Amino acid sequence: MKFSQLAQQIAAADRTSLATHPNGDPEIIGVAAIEEATSGNLSYVEGSKFAAEVSKTAASALILPLDEALQTQATTRQIAWIATSQPRLAFAQAIALFYQPFRPAPEIHPTAVIHPSAQVGEEVAIGAHVVIQAGVKIGNQVCIHPNVVIYPEVKVGDRTTLHANCVIHERAQIGSNCVIHSGAAIGSEGFGFVPVREGWFKMEQSGYTVLEDGVEVGCNSAIDRPAVGETRVARNTKIDNMVHIAHGCQVGEACAMAAQVGLAGGVKVGNRVILAGQVGLANGAQMGDGAIASAKTGVHGNVLPGETVSGYPAVPHRLYLKASAVYNRLPEMYQTLKRLQRQLGNDS
Amino acid sequence: MKFSQLAQQIAAADRTSLATHPNGDPEIIGVAAIEEATSGNLSYVEGSKFAAEVSKTAASALILPLDEALQTQATTRQIAWIATSQPRLAFAQAIALFYQPFRPAPEIHPTAVIHPSAQVGEEVAIGAHVVIQAGVKIGNQVCIHPNVVIYPEVKVGDRTTLHANCVIHERAQIGSNCVIHSGAAIGSEGFGFVPVREGWFKMEQSGYTVLEDGVEVGCNSAIDRPAVGETRVARNTKIDNMVHIAHGCQVGEACAMAAQVGLAGGVKVGNRVILAGQVGLANGAQMGDGAIASAKTGVHGNVLPGETVSGYPAVPHRLYLKASAVYNRLPEMYQTLKRLQRQLGNDS
Amino acid sequence: MKFSQLAQQIAAADRTSLATHPNGDPEIIGVAAIEEATSGNLSYVEGSKFAAEVSKTAASALILPLDEALQTQATTRQIAWIATSQPRLAFAQAIALFYQPFRPAPEIHPTAVIHPSAQVGEEVAIGAHVVIQAGVKIGNQVCIHPNVVIYPEVKVGDRTTLHANCVIHERAQIGSNCVIHSGAAIGSEGFGFVPVREGWFKMEQSGYTVLEDGVEVGCNSAIDRPAVGETRVARNTKIDNMVHIAHGCQVGEACAMAAQVGLAGGVKVGNRVILAGQVGLANGAQMGDGAIASAKTGVHGNVLPGETVSGYPAVPHRLYLKASAVYNRLPEMYQTLKRLQRQLGNDS
Fold first, then answer.
1. What pTM does this model have?
2. DSSP-derived pairing of the beta strands C18-20 and C80-83
3. Strands across the sheet with B125-126, in order?
4. Other residues' Cβ atoms within 10 Å of the Cβ of residue C55
5. Cis omega (within 30 of 0) on the bond before C26?
6. CB interface of B with C, residues 317-346, below 8 Å
7. Residues 252 to 281 of C: which have CB under 8 A from any B CB?
8. Cβ C264 vs Cβ C247: under 8 Å
């Protein structure tokens, strides 16, 4: 594809975007990271700190931020460029022009075991050794990769993809345009045990899990169903690998949870909340809309909308940065304090 | 079911329990969380802090603690109620009256691949695409969901359930009345490597994993087998999702481990120990009977029986609470200390 | 096997090793941990702190360190012994003499579904219900356990083992002599989303994952592929259970990562790096050759080659030990500081 054509297709919504090709209109044959790009590649940088990369890249074209110095640099090196306020978004759009994700043909493999009471929509791909149990409803253009198991009474919305070896448990409701990655378990039994004299009395988990439209769940994550009612993840929330969402959690829209995050039972998370890697939310924790927890944070109480918290136990991020800086001086502070006590004649 | 019938069936062991229906004997058709309950539902609250919920619930019946104010409140609102010292247990018993967990019929699916030397008990359900290898012994009334793989020489006790896509490795011994959830790996190879000049020399893991009766293991958890001897989880211990138990660990009876807990190799855990979410126990750590580690705690040494520890590195919980409270004042303390030093003429 | 024969086969490379059998040449029938060993067993200890175990073990033979006191002790108890500078390595070699890991016969199970365009080498074992998709190339003597799913265009090198229910995603390249444990996902889609007004714009992950020769990946771990380019784990690196390696990470040779470690996108890890359990490496973190992060450490910046770091945020291990020791005295320090302020007449 000619660079000029490509430039018309990406960053189209960004009226501030510019594009130029100082040395002819190069043929773009693929996308690459800037340090790996070769002739014919389009690449991108996100800010002026990447000037050194621009000075030596072999890319034929670049997506740049709205930064005149970088633009001049690219022009001088005779690299075609597009400048936009969102270079990463434009690069994502560019990848989609060159890369077609693997998608099996809409066929039902003869080794799939589908219960006669299950309903399957149109143009559905069902891979080898998939098991679909009683009362399941599968929408249109759904793609179910091999060895997926779907327990009874599950609903799967249109255009949703279930990757290999994931398991969808009884009564789960998965919306449209969702992606469940390999090995994830949706609607699995919540961890409900009441302590009794002999050990633990099992509380049956009679509820179900709901994933609204556009939710993604990463590899080997689990989203449990509760004793009564529902666990819910609202639309467009994206969940990375090995995330645990316990029974009865309520997660808002358009959140992002990085890998190995854990939510204890009944946790409430607002809209557009961001949880970085290995964050834990304890029983009763709440995160308001737009709140952020940085990596490894342990949240116990209520995080206000828009607040960023860090540390364990979680504190406002600015306080965390200050306290962490002082933490390294604790041994020195301890010695100083001892010395002052001696000086004042009151060490015990 | 009439409320009066239901009241006879739950909390039966609790002699202090009371039950009354101030406005006729309502028909109970299901159970629900108190904020979601509608007419015909039974719900529960655990303490007086839920008085506001009792004041507005639409539930027809409630399980209450032994709290006269709540009881009076329910009576005034003409809600039938049962009062007991263990409302959560009674609610768990009530759920079991209304909810029948999904259980496949005791049949062996024709697509299951079972080695001729395997022994399978009576009334066993074996789902589609299950693989059972040489020398495996399956007890009676076992339920094996689709796509489970059982390696050679495994034993599975009576009435145990193996959920979809879990894997039971060679020589593992799983007791009776166990539940292994989707994607869990039992008896997998321990992480045994000896550092050598070229990298790592693999120590073969010739041992096996034992789960005693009544153990549950959550989705995508793994309990490894050791180089020699056994990894053991004693009876009635309950393990949540994505828990890692390394080779050679010895875990006692009736413990509970929340999600994403990790036990390093050879860790010893006593009876009735509770490990909250994302706790880590390092090599050589020990937890005495009844000890508790709160969420995200990192344990290195020996936790005494009955002790509660928190933080990383783990300290007694009370000390942790105090130290955490001071942590937030570290920046302020540092400034104060500097000021005192200047005042005393000895800042360097 | 006679002890004398066994002694010739292990620790052969260690010229400093010694062996003696003070009471005849015992027949060794197996290996065991020292506290569980019975007559006919070979066991080992790693240092003088295990003298009490040597004094009471029922083992017929021991592998000892180069410690004369322990050797005398064994001789006195008429236990045959081998002394070496690396007892654990010698014990690993001894296990391999007695234990033959389970390995299925080199046959292709009739229920496996193999795309006609896939190429399969010689002496390959392919288990029941395995799915191998278009364009896959499988080397010689590969062992693929049941219910594994391999997406299109994957390469698997000679003598590699894929355990049950693992999933290898499109274009992944797995070297020779690798082991992928049950439920692991290799080459799965990286977590790539660009924030936009409506939520998140998906960045397609057009790259692939490379595992070089001799890499092991534990149960239910995931190693994602990036948007462009590759995620790479270099040769002989060993990865435990439930480890997350995000898109675009570059991991060096002969590293070891314990369970539940998480690497954020684009992290760079040098050669022979050791990451203990539950360590997290944030975006942009780097670990130099030979660096070590102790359990639960959270690394944000650049760890120098050979450095050991601990804590969250990570600091040099020695500083961490000192600061942790003082941490417990924070409440006391706070009180002391208040008292000094009062004494100096300047408390506010």
1. 0.96
2. antiparallel
3. B125-126, B143-144, B161-162, B179-180, B216-217, B238-239, B256-257, B274-275, B292-293, B308-310, B315-316
4. 11
5. no
6. 319, 322-323, 325-327, 329-330, 333, 336-337, 339-340, 343-344
7. 253-254, 256, 258-260, 276-278
8. no
How many Å lie between the alpha carbon of C296 and the closest alpha carbon of chain B? 7
Return the percentage of chain B with pLDDT > 90, whole number. 85
Interface contact A200-B256, CB threshold 8 A:
yes
> Which residue in A has a C-alpha nearest to residue B295's C-alpha?
A282
> Domains in chain B and their CATH numbers?
3-98 (3.40.1390.10), 113-321 (2.160.10.10)
Report residues of chain C scoring pLDDT below 70: 12-13, 346-348
CB nearest to C344's CB, from B165, B196, B340: B340
Tokens 């570290």, located at residue: B330
CA distance A182 to A147: 10
Task: For residue C107, give both structure tokens.
Answer: 């046959």
Sequence-distant (6+) residues with CB within 8 A of C175 are: C157, C160, C210, C211, C212, C213, C214, C215, C235
- C227-267 residue pLDDT tens: 999 999 999 999 999 999 999 999 999 999 999 999 999 99
The separation between CA B171 and the C-alpha centre of its own chain, rounded to angstroms, equals 24
CB B19 within 8 A of CB B42: no
What residues form DSSP beta bridges with B329? none
Is residue C300 flagged as an active site residue?
Answer: no
Contact A137, A160 (CB under 8 A): no
Tell me whether residues A236 and C333 touch, CB distance under 8 A: no
Given CB atoms, is B114 within the 8 Å cutoff of chain C? no
Type of residue at C261: V
Of the candidates A205, A282, A216, A301, the residue with the CA atom closest to the CA atom of residue A247? A205
Q: Write the residue in C89, C95, C165 that is nearest to B149 by C-beta.
A: C165
